[in-house]
Amino acid sequence: MKRTRSQTKSNSTPNNDPKPPTKTLISSKIPFTVKKIPNLTLKNKKPNLHLPTPPPSTTTIAKPLSSHGEIESALNHLHSADPLLSTIINTFPSPQLSTNTTPFLSLIKTLISQQISTKSASSIENRFISLFGHPSSILPDAVLSLSPTHLRQIGISGPKATYIHDLSTKYANGFLSDSSIIEMDDETLYEKLTSVKGIGPWSVHMFMIFTLHRPDVLPVGDLGVRKGVQKLYGLKGLPSPSQMEVLCHKWKPYRSVGTWYMYKLVEAKGVLPNPTTVLC
């Protein structure tokens, strides 16, 4: 599932993040032409908004989507669970996943990219990495050795320098670590990451989907995902976060993959590519 930044001032607006990013890896506010897509809308029908009783909570860590066979399992489930989503799945290539960034560096990139263009974020990230010679050398103590002034000299704002230092401090004192992040259940991970300055709910959701490849994440406040669900089900207005939970419940336990296809649907701007055959 390749991550592509798209937090622009007119694009994605994360919810409740201290500094709402305007460039990230996937858009939340992608403008598109409103057109009816054949076989995707529900005419004169209202979606069933009765949410089934959820199963008891569990701290079991599900296999990441990057595990062998997990994407195929997700697509098979979504094909059978949601006929409308199945049409979208058949239209786009299956998600591709990137596994070449550590959680620590990925979180730093998330902080750097807030409120700036893709081009600017990429340039600053490259300058940041060059300070250490190689991504593998970007460790908490090494980052803390750089003063806020030094970080500002490569284009990182004062507030973002504070956020990066706070993240690095939490790594240095053991509150967070790459290994513990990988092993945490979703609820604990959410609580710990949102305690870091500059990281809010939307950023955590994107990190869980595109870095950790957690299979069942639904960013209910993400405008791009909400627009996708609106188009998919032919709704007159944007679904609320609570409606999102109900409408997308059938996607469990692979709501991250459903989310990915909502981004693709919105990016298509109403004009879908030729259908492809994906696990029909």
TrEMBL record:
Xref: SMART domains: ENDO3c
GO biological process, one term: DNA alkylation repair
Positions of the HhH-GPD domain: 112-267
Entry keyword annotation includes Transferase: no
Family annotation (InterPro entries): Alkylbase_DNA_Glycosylase/TA (IPR051912), DNA_glycosylase (IPR011257), HhH-GPD_domain (IPR003265)
SUPFAM superfamilies linked: DNA-glycosylase
Location of region: Disordered: 1-25
Single GO cellular component term: nucleus
Keywords, alphabetical: DNA damage, DNA repair
Molecular function via GO: alkylated DNA binding; DNA-3-methyladenine glycosylase activity; DNA-7-methylguanine glycosylase activity
Entry similarity comment: Belongs to the alkylbase DNA glycosidase AlkA family.
Protein name in the entry: HhH-GPD domain-containing protein
